[in-house]
Every structure is written in C-alpha cells, then in structure tokens.
Amino acid sequence: MQVRVGTVLALVLGVLGVTLLTPAAALGAPPQSVPVTSTVLASPEDEGPLIQGRLIDETGGKSEPVEGVEITVLDDSGTEIGTATSDAEGAFAIPVPGSGTYTVRVDEETLPEGTRLRNPDDVENTVTISGFDKTVLFPIGPDNRQVTGLSTEIVELTVGGILFGLILALSALGLSMIYGTTGLTNFAHGELVTFGALVALILNVSVGLPVILAGVFAVIVAALFGWLQDTFLWRRLRHRGTGLVAMMIVAIGMAIFLRALWQYIIGGNREAYTDYVTQQPIIIGPISMPPRDMLLAATAFVVLMVVILALQRTKMGKAMRAVADNPPLAASSGINVDRVISMVWIGGTALAALGGFLYTIKYQMDYNMGLRLLLLIFAAVILGGIGTIWGALIGSLVVALFTELSTLFIPAELKYTGALFVMIVILLFRPQGIMGRAQRVG
Amino acid sequence: MDWGVIFSNAFQAAIGPEAIVYCLAAIGLNIHFGYTGLLNFGQAGFMAVAGYGLAASVVTFGLPFWLGLLVGIGATVVLALLLGVPTLRLRADYLAIVTIAAAEIVRQVLGSQTLRPWFGGKDGRQGFSDPLRAINPLSGRVELGFMSFSPFEFWVMLIGWTLVALCVLVVWLLMRSPWGRVLKAIREDEDAVRSLGKNVYGYKMQALVLGGLIGGVAGFIMSLARSSIVPDNFQADITFFAWTVLLLGGAARVFGPVVGAVLFWLLISVLGNFFSQATAGENPLMPTWLMDQNQASMVRFIVLGLALMLLMIFRPQGIFGDKRELAINAR
User: Fold this and answer.
1) Are the beta carbons of B260 and B245 closer than 8 angstroms?
2) Residue B297: closest CA among chain A residues belongs to which residue?
3) Rounded Cα distance, A337 and A322, in Å
4) SS3 category, A113
5) In whole angstroms, what is the distance from residue B43 CA to residue B25 CA?
6) Do A255 and B243 touch (CB under 8 A)?
7) How many CB contacts within 8 angstroms connect chain A with chain B?
8) pTM
9) Which among B308, B283, B274 has a CA at the least distance from the CA of B2?
10) Block means of pLDDT (10 residues each) for chain A, length 442 residues?
11) Strands A80-85 vs A56-57: parallel, antiparallel or unpaired
C-alpha cells in the first residue's frame, strides 16, 4: 500500500501533529509562541535504530539551533549506551542496540547561558524503541503557556473548542439521527467517522486527488456505504424483529470488524493528507488562527445548518421526525418508513464521514480515531438530548468547550476523562439532556 | 505450514491463563447480562481497578499481598456502587454507554502522568506477583502431552481454573436460589417484579457488585499471569471480547462462559498462528501484496468481529443457550 510508506515527510508531519495537539498550540498559536523546538531529521540508512532529535531555541520568536548540548542514552538497567553533542544544526543522533526501553538524559550544565528546558522534568526522558528510529523532543525556552495571559488563553481555548465542537457535531448529528429513527445505539459509528477519513486519505495520498476533492468523494462513498449497511443488514434485522439489544451487539461486532479492517488497510501509524498541514495563522483581534481552521469551521457550520434546517422544514425531515416519534403511526399515514430510515442511514453515515475528514485535516488520523471519538460523541449526544435535532450541535459545543477550557484546571491528558465524567453526572440529574423533553427513562 | 504447532498452540491457549481471564470476566458479565439483563460494557474497568488495587498496594505502598487482594476487591465494590447509583435507574442502553465511559475514565486516570507516582503511568507496575511465585510448589516445566507450560504459568492456571470452578459453583447455587429467580424475573419484566414489592434497584445493585467482583478476579489473574499491569491491558476491546466469549458459549447458562472462553481462544490462536505462518518466510503462502506479517495479526480480529455479528444475527443464544431463557429480543 502506498499509503503506508512512511516517508520522511510523513514523519515531519507526525511531529507537527504532536505540536498541534499540545494544549498551548491547540489552535495554531502565533509563531512567536510555538513552544516545541525539535524537528525530525532524515533517518540515515544504517543498522540499529537511532534515538534522534534537534534542539532549537525559539525564545522570543527566533529560531536558533542550540549547539554543544550533551545528550546521554542509558538502557533500562542504567548502563550508558552512548553520548552525543548537538552539532551546529542543533541535531543529535545516538544509535542503540535494538528494541527496548531507554532513558534519554540532557546535561543541563551544557545548555547555553540563558536557555533552559521548558519542562524541567524533561531532563530525563524514557523512550520505548520498537525497531525504528525514535525522535525525542526537548522543548527549550520559557513556557509560553505561562507567558500568555489568562484572558488570551481563555480566548484561544474557546476558539479551539468551538472548532472542535463543530467538527464533533457533524458526527454526533449522524449518531443522533440514527438513534432517533431506529432506536439503535450504534457502537460502530466511530468506525464510520474513521471510514470517511480513510477513504479521503487513500484518494488523496495513493490516488493523488486534491484534498478537498478527495473529501467530497469520501462523503459520497460513505453515503453509499450507509445505504448498503441499511439495505443489507439493519433493514433485514428490523424486519425480522431483532431486538434493540441484539442489534446493539451486532453493532459492536461491526465496530470490531471495521476497526480491524481499517488497521489492516492503513497500519498503526498516524497519517495526514498532503495539503493544509501547516499554515501561517491570521490574527484578528485577540484570535489568531490559520485560514484552514476558518474554512473547517465554516464548512462544518454551513453543513450543520443546512441539515438541521432540512430536518425542520423539508417534507423528508418531517417524515424522519414522524418515524422517530412513532413508526407504525408514520407508516399508517402514508410514510414509507423503510425509505425514510434508509435516508437517515445515508445522511448519518455521510455526516460521520465528513466529520472524520474535517477532523483529519486538523488533527490527523489513525485507525483508532473512531473509538476515541465515539465516547465523546456519545457524551455530546447524551448531553444535548439524544434524538433531538439541536441537541447534537449544542451538546458537541458544550463537550468540546468543556474539554478545552478544563485544561485551565486539570492536566491536559485528562481533558477527555473530564468530559466523560460530566456526561455521567448529567445522566444523574437530567438524563434527557439539555434539549430533551423530560420523560421517564427506565 | 506446520499444523502440529498450530494445534498444540491452540490447545495451549484454550486452557492457558488468558482463557481463564476471559472466562472469569464473562462469568461476571453472565450475572449482569445473562441473568439480570444489565448491559455492562465496562468490565475492563472492574478488571483494572482490581488489578491496580493489588499492584499499587504491593509495589507502591509495600502492603502484604493478601491485603493487596482485599484492596483490589474493595476497589471493585466501590466502582460497582459508584456506577450503579446513577445508572441502574436508567434505560438499558444508557447503562451501556455509562459503563463503557467509566471504564475508559478508569483506564485514563490510572495511566495518567499525574498519578505516575502511584500507578506508574503508561509503564504500569511490576513485581507484585513475587509473593505468589514464592509459594509456587512446582519447580520444573509441566508437560501435558503435546503442551508445555512454565512452572509459574501452570501455577497460575491451577489457581485460575480452581477459581473458575468456584465461581461456576457459586453462580449455579445462586441462580437456583430464590434470589436468583428474582434476578431472572427482573430480566424478563422488571415492572412486574416491582409490583410484587421487590426492591428491583437493590437486586440490580447486588448483581452489579457480584458480577463486578468476578470481573475483578479476572483482573487479578490477568495481572498475576503477566506479572505486570499496564493501562493498555484494559482497553474497551477487552470488554467486547468478554462479551463475545459470553455470547459464544451462551448467556444465562452456567457453563456458557467456560465453553465460550475455550472456543474463543482456540479460534483466536488457530487464526493467529495460521496467518502468521502463511505470511512468514522467504516465499510465503499468502502473496505479500495481499497480506504482510503485521496484517496477518489483524485477520483474527476481523474474523472475530464478523463472528460476533453473525452469532448475534443467527444464533443469539450461543452454542448452549436456550432461546426461551434469553429475552434478548424482548427489549
């Protein structure tokens, strides 16, 4: 598979992806505050994996390689494996005997006057090598997150949260529509999100289509996939009278099946599209974001509004809501229930795929992204009120804003945990969600 | 293609420690789902808190081994109560979402960098199985026909299968008691049970705690057999596989999880070994453009997912289940 060829480019993109995901840079912070300072070197072809990296001091918007820093690698028993000094380019590379766990140590004494590691804990870094070269990051320079004022930080996190929320809402709306009309809790919905990202990846990287065109085709292919799924699986189960719990377990089987299939196709690495990976941000007042992000937010917003208005205003939308309310009654008033549910599957899968595609442009993808997003999607849908039209959008925005803003108080690694926790608390006090009507559940 | 190796590996896996772990996890799920009708998708969370309760007590706090086991059991009960209070009054599918979310919360918190001093972050904890090794009566490798086990592995298997037998016995006795009949009645129609004056919520909670405890025992065996515990052991997939084991053998059947676990591991091992051999060597059986060694390891999960779907569609009662017993289609 051409997609799996790990080119140097892809490696560089991988590191940039990590940069994007660090909380400070969550929405493409302005260039003078980009905190991560190491980039990847081309991997030379020699025996044995390398532990490598590059030290660049970007304090105050400069970009100066840091020369003469001593780096030591120890194995897990504490024996020294090798030492290197960063060269004029700030680069270092230390060969290690093979797979295993190693400790990479920076000699702080050798850092030039006035520079320091951003995170003092980084002096010793534990890395696990599994046969391939490994890049270690040692951010240098003051921690910009502390330099940034609290209000700026809140604005940045809010903007990032809204963007993530809009993308999440696409997938959440799909799940909510399918649940609303069929009652199925679709545990395979995350895999449909990955499907969109994956089809676009193959069309973009292997076939060579431009990113946007690949995305359009991915959404079309996903719509077809949704139709196929309903026609050959879910409709038949419905007609047989299969219970909702049994269908839910079928969906879990499908999730395992599809996730393994996606990993079979693209392997376990993070992948990115060929374009829109990095862009210079534009600064508007207190907000700075790359044009790409604005385009993503606008696309998601327009699609969401069109779908929501269609659900509220068009005949098909009314039919969907009628089926959601009471399928037998809808059928007896002349609505073709199977056709409506088929449309819901087509629309829901297409929305999920679009969500996955937009997500990948900003955050990159891997085979497991669907499962990670699934729980957030559940949280969003439950929070907003499952099966309600506006609930998916409002729930997604709340979940996304909560995850981003919670990093002000809790460690960033636990931000999704916090969102899931809030979902459980909401279920305690308002199980119908924000937009749902109060009714007895259970 | 060496079929001898494939089959000896498969039988070894079918009675090995991993099979015991899934068997115990599925016995717990059987109490939840098979008998009470609760959709617990967070069994991995129960396994994790028990395993980490033991590991952190022994390694981080230097407590004796038996006390570590008690801490693990206590943690499992606490988790069951925490989960049960908000969700047992809710609709069935809400319980499913909340339990899977709770298991994920447990995994992320236990593996977090913030709590590294206690739980060891992504590296987890090692060295807590030493007291169990010290009392191992076996010394040499154990040969059973074409199978061969290391002394510690076999020691864990002895303990594990004894616990499985004990749990099966407990489930059998409980489910033919008046208490068990109330559980089954709740599964069939909880409003009817409520109108008879039974405290449905209380019974569900007891079932959740009991099933969670057996899941916790699975967590102990898993961590002890591997002599190490890491957060990635407890991904949501573990729960899904335990469900597959349960549904394969047949829910609401005392021996369902045991049969399911053995068959599950036979299948997984045969598929894994077959495709690994089919893609190995200079001139593999499988053309490389179709499948390489990494992809070979994925085939079993692809088959597994398909198998779970087909099982649920065509034989929801599993191999030994009784369709009348399992009201899976009623909800």
Assistant:
1) yes
2) A264
3) 9
4) coil
5) 7
6) no
7) 137
8) 0.79
9) B274
10) 39 37 36 36 49 72 72 80 79 77 78 69 70 70 58 86 95 92 92 96 93 95 97 93 87 95 90 79 75 91 95 90 88 92 96 96 91 91 83 92 89 86 81 68 41
11) unpaired
